[in-house]
Design a protein that fits this description.
The complex is a heterodimer. By secondary structure, chain A is α/β, with parallel strands linked by helices. Chain A folds into 2 domains: about 1-245, Rossmann fold, CATH 3.40.50.300; about 255-325, CBS domain Like (Alpha-Beta Complex), CATH 3.90.1280. Chain A is about 35% helix and about 25% strand. Chain A is built from 14 helices and 13 strands. Chain A has helices spanning about 45-50, 75-80, 95-100, 100-105, 110-125, 130, 140-155, 170-190, 200-205, 225-230, 235-240, 245-250, 255-260, 285-295; strands at about 1-10, 15-30, 35, 60-65, 65-70, 80-85, 160-165, 190-195, 210-215, 215-220, 275-280, 300, 310-315. In chain A, the strands form 3 sheets. Chain A has a 6-stranded mixed sheet, with helices on both faces. In chain A, strands 2-1-4-5 form a 4-stranded antiparallel sheet, covered by helices on one side. Chain B is mainly alpha-helical. Chain B has one domain: MetI-like fold (Orthogonal Bundle), CATH 1.10.3720.10. In chain B, helix 5 crosses helix 6 (about 125-160). Chain B is elongated. Classes of the chains: A alpha/beta, B mainly alpha.
Amino acid sequence: MIRFQQVTKIYESANKTVKAVNNITFQVEEGQICVFLGPSGCGKTTLLRMVNRLIPITSGTIEVNGKEIHSLDPIALRRSIGYVIQQTGLFPNMTIEENICVVPNLLGWDRVKMKKRYNELMEMMGLNPDEYRKRYPWELSGGQQQRIGVARALAADPPVMLMDEPFGALDPIIRERIQNEFLRIQKDVKKTILFVSHDLDEAIKLGDTIALFRSGELMQHGTPDEILSQPKNEFVAEFVGSERALKRLSLFTMRDLVSRLNPADRKSAGKRDLRHTVHMDTNLRTALSVLLSSPTGEAAVVDDNGQISGVVSIADFERLTGIHPSERTSAVQ
Amino acid sequence: MEVILFLQDNWREMLQLTWEHLQLVGLAVGVAILTGVPFGIYIAQRESLANLVMAVAGIIMTIPSIALFGIMIPILSLIGQGIGFLPAFLALVLYSQLPIIRNTYIAIKNVNPEMRDAAIGMGMTAWERLTKVEIPLALPVIMAGVRTAVVLTIGIGAIAAYIGAGGLGEYIARGISTSYTTMVQAGALAVSILALAIDFLLGRIQKRLSSQTAKTS
């Protein structure tokens, strides 16, 4: 768990003082991803970098797993926190194996243990350990480098990870794939993660919670659904934009919708035109797009066994009003 | 033509002088690396000191070599080493300082700030950061400084013959004083070839170092 209490950062220069981070209090539960979101200069990166003491705090306290960070040695603190930066920050003078084993090496692990950990991590990332062991970062694609960057942060199995726009420099297709892999890995490792992003879609997709900042102040901290459906103020509403209802749909899957339909309303497949189909695990934003492209406004729902289990129409979407994310029956992949 | 005949007759002596020359330059640059590189790294952490050090090193560079040898003579005479190897060696060490200190300083300063950030963020101490990340990344540029220093001192080393330090400058000095043009030409040619050859060799080493570290993307 990470707890911020009245955290403030003031930069003083000759003629003015700037409050980069102003009196921020909130907490991130263990095993959750909290995305720091906001326009550039809103203080999100400053706040992140205060957690591993790259930036000194002006006032307030930050606790990581119950320990106030200033009671710890900064070197030991940083070694116990995974750190991923934009453009990966891989060291070009080191091979992939050396890069991944940087922190284990600093911690003085023995060779056998490091090698085992390297193999483990590479397999987790879906990369062949032996193929990359002796290669250098510049020989890898951007997406592969980013995977290595994440693997490196996980190397010493830290309970907490800080990620500063790690996927920002990737093209949209690769970014989406890596986001999916990242979520899959997180399901196993369950780290407490602070993740800086300026991309709302990324925040909705990855965040268990989103903390939205503006000029050093915390505007709202809540689940993606809360941010989208109950924006606290003008700024949040404007930031999430007029598409927020659509974006919100991507938080739910067809399974959520079907489970909410009255059995009486359920239409059987019958003799309908069933060229348009959606899978149970499709998110509702995509499903809506399928329905809109169907001439009848209807589509068949396919279950895990590939069987058609029913038919949905655009009208069924009204069932979703007022649905709360805690009532979700399934997680969006 | 005459130069070739001269070399045919004197190649043994020529090799001997080349060896002396290399010893003088090698030792001087070796010591300059051992002092200049740590110094360059040190001033990269202390910005206020950097300008002063660069200025002093720059001033030393502007002293004509023949004058510097002249200054060395009375000072080192106090310990009975007024002429010969020691004053030449010291002068060459001083001349090597500027390219080596400057390149080291610039190389360390120019290490990608993201690399530094990653190194600190992952929990490296200042020493670990320096030895595992900054110095390896700075190596090609430091090497370029060493290369400049070597070529520079091979040239200046030729003048050291005037204070009895030996080396290929012998031919030039002796040739001038006896008006024997061929001897001067042979000495000059040998110094040039030596400088080019060593520069080429160090260039290869520098290239090898860069190919591992410079490609960051």
